[in-house]
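Duplicate of #3305? Posting structure anyway:
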């Protein structure tokens, strides 16, 4: 951890006190007061304080208090349930992604990087088939793109690369920052999208299974293609249903699915298993597809989905820190950040804030392969 000292701008400490755990603030009152009065803590001490207060590390480096949007993303959840309020962990993730997006917008503007090719390509009167075709064109996906994927667990990485080529920035994690004690609840959300024509951002909950993450990514890409955040002001609405249908059409084209289903003489359950394997997707996607096409009854669909949702398990962490961290951060974002730091446009403290890595940890992160 870096021993370099940092300057905390005026107004930041009072703001942090107002949003942090009051008990933790009281326990660290003297140290916070010293920082407020001009004391310059080390990066290591700031990191320790952020964990103690459950406040994002990057907040200490802001020049002024950050105001989040009044709108709350309507995150895709198991069973498409909506949450009236976000958990503190999820709020921190959304806030950090908004900060990253602001940096991306500024950097893309400096580099004259243009707009995302997928942003806003869907018109208001487009039907599901037309919308799915437009998105496939922008992602350079053939109708039978799934044949190029080795296994269903590789669909997500394949689609993530395609989205990156279309200037969509994909981030994922199962925890808040690097704090493994603050895990993101899969029951609360699977993914969300923050729209911007230059720097659209998608965040995926990595606690989900790879084949399910692929569908979540497609769902969020539809929101970006519509030109909107994945945000609802109230209950489940038509946009969510439309996004689900378009995502399903991209993953499992109707015409191809009908031919596949008709070519099998096995039971419906067996056909669903075979379809999930053929189309490199989750069993839930083909189950809903079969129901919407009238190939299985509502009761069978509901029972199948109930079993599927019940079987989903939280994944544990582990593995190489740097490899995991690079997989969590968008590869194009890391390349842009590294260039910007080396060229002097972005300070190291800003880079630490954006990546959640500081000092030698940040240097080691950037020395590794960026995909």
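Output from current build:
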């Amino acid at each position: 951890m870096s021993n370099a000292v940092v300057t905390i701008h005026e107004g930041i400490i009072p703001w942090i006190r107002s949003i942090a755990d009051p008990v933790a603030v009281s326990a660290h009152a003297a140290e916070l007061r010293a920082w407020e009065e001009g004391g310059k803590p080390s990066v290591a001490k700031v990191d320790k304080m952020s964990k103690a207060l459950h406040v994002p590390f990057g907040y200490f480096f802001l020049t002024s208090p950050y105001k989040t949007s009044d709108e709350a993303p309507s995150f895709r959840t198991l069973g498409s349930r909506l949450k009236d309020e976000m958990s503190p962990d999820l709020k921190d993730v959304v806030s950090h992604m908004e900060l990253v997006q602001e940096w991306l917008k500024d950097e893309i503007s400096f580099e004259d990087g243009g707009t995302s090719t997928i942003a806003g390509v869907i018109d208001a009167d487009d039907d599901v088939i037309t919308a799915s075709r437009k998105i496939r064109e922008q992602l350079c996906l053939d109708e039978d793109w799934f044949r190029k994927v080795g296994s269903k667990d590789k669909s997500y990485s394949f689609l993530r690369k395609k989205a990156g080529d279309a200037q969509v920035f994909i981030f994922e994690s199962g925890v808040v920052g690097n704090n493994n004690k603050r895990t993101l609840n899969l029951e609360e959300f699977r993914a969300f999208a923050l729209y911007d024509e230059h720097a659209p951002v998608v965040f995926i909950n990595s606690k989900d299974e790879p084949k399910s993450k692929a569908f979540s990514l497609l769902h969020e890409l539809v929101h970006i293609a519509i030109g909107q955040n994945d945000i609802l002001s109230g209950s489940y609405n038509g946009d969510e249903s439309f996004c689900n249908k378009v995502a399903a059409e991209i993953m499992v084209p109707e015409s191809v699915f009908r031919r596949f289903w008709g070519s099998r003489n096995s039971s419906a359950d067996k056909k669903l298993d075979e379809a999930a394997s053929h189309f490199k997707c989750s069993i839930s996607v083909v189950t809903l597809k079969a129901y919407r096409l009238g190939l299985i009854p509502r009761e069978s669909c509901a029972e199948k989905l109930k079993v599927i949702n019940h079987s989903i398990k939280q994944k544990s962490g582990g593995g190489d820190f740097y490899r995991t961290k690079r997989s969590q951060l968008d590869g194009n974002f890391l390349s842009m950040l590294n260039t910007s730091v080396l060229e002097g446009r972005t300070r190291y403290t800003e880079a630490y804030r954006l990546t959640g890595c500081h000092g030698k940890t940040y240097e080691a992160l950037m020395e590794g392969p960026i995909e």
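Confirmed duplicate; merging threads. Residues 52 and 187 are 26 Å apart (CA to CA). The radius of gyration is 22 Å.
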